[in-house]
Design goal:
mainly alpha, single chain
Length: 273
Amino acid sequence: MRRILLFLVISTFACEVFSHESYKTASTLIENFRDEMYLQRIDDATLSQMYQDMLVILEELDLDEQELLFRKSQAAYYMARGYLAFDKTEEVLESDREFRNSKFRAVQKRYKNLEEIIQLLEESMSLSEQYLTMGRDARGIRQYAESLSQIATLKTMSYLISNGPKVQTLAREAIELDPDEIKAHMLIASRYIYSPLIFGGNPAKGIGIIETTVQKGSPDREDMHSINVALGVANLKLERWLEAAYYFGKAQEIYPGNVYSAAMLSFCESELE
């Protein structure tokens, strides 16, 4: 009997160790994929293959159903973000001008695979919804909100008006559950920084939120990049070219070669000449 009990204890411990390693592997896979998306060292086709390979590995890991749903939701979200990233400076600057002038339809037309991008974001949201039925927590709510924030301007204007405000509501719910959920804080700040004036844009207010946010939690590589890019955009909108150039430069240090931050840095430097 004692041998049986000892075997059960050892078996349980071994499973926990194996499970822990699987969770760690899943996290590393997602982080590596995320970083490749931001670094833009590979083309969309290669990134897509990396995405497909990662899904296969995630399915083979010893993850419980809820964890698998969360990781697959993240994967779909980052794949969509990869497709949304422009590869040329001119495209970045032109689309940025169009977005700031609320010409969302013009930006949409720049994406030849818009339907695929929307499908990926819808899949990410669906996976997050399934995840949340098993337990509502900050990271699940935030992940859903991040995908919703990306898809909001890719559909119709009525969709944006109906669903755009939900991002803020969800972000606040995530923060209530976990005050250190930095990405949720950034969703709130982004609304004021990236939104055109007609949709409530207020760069100065966004800067204030970020200044408070950086004191919370432990920002990861993506968080630091997002913070610097957002501060760059906010200062750009306020025509503080030197400050904007500084933050875009910091973003380039985090993800060297990222086309968006490089393009915006170049634009700010041209304004300083």
